[in-house]
Amino acid sequence: MRIVAGRHKGRRLEAPDGRVARPTADRVRQALFDILAHSDLVDMEDAVVVDAFAGTGALGLEALSRGAAQASFIELNAASLGALHANIKALGEDGRAKVIRADATKPPAAPQPCTLAFLDPPYHADLVTPCLDGLAARGWLADDALVVVEVAADETVTPPPGFRLADERERGAARLVFLIYGAA
């Protein structure tokens, strides 16, 4: 697994041993960031990012590589946290990355609202709505923030109150769902 583009292009990312994490595949991450680059859904330059269920941090680190100002990573699993810290250090992103050991469905109060959120919960675990509700309630999402949710291709995401569907794409075994927070 590598960073796909930007200033860290080609740099390897570590993953914990075993089946602790299911990092977003490089080709899915490439497709996701191509969609973002060619849309008006978010301005990656200077974006403030939260990567919930961060695992290795691949999504948030890819955003930093492509110009995001800062990223917060929410992760609970100890093995994933080890890999996440190692990846941040290896890329020299200690100053723009903050790791928060917490349940992504019950996050602590946000240090500041984010303009871009990535949610990559375990497939088929029904954690999307609790996470969206938790992030919204604790101030993690700015008005009009883009939330990108990755679920299994056979899963559906129904936007909870306060969110609206902007787009949805299937890429291999993954479904990418793009939601806007706080939009009328």
UniProtKB/TrEMBL annotation:
Residues spanning the signal sequence: none
GO molecular function: methyltransferase activity
InterPro entries: RNA_MeTrfase_RsmD, SAM-dependent_MTases_sf
Stored Pfam families: Cons_hypoth95
Gene Ontology annotations of biological process type: rRNA methylation
Keywords in alphabetical order: Methyltransferase, Transferase
Stored NCBIfam families: 16S rRNA (guanine(966)-N(2))-methyltransferase RsmD
Record-given protein name: 16S rRNA (Guanine(966)-N(2))-methyltransferase RsmD
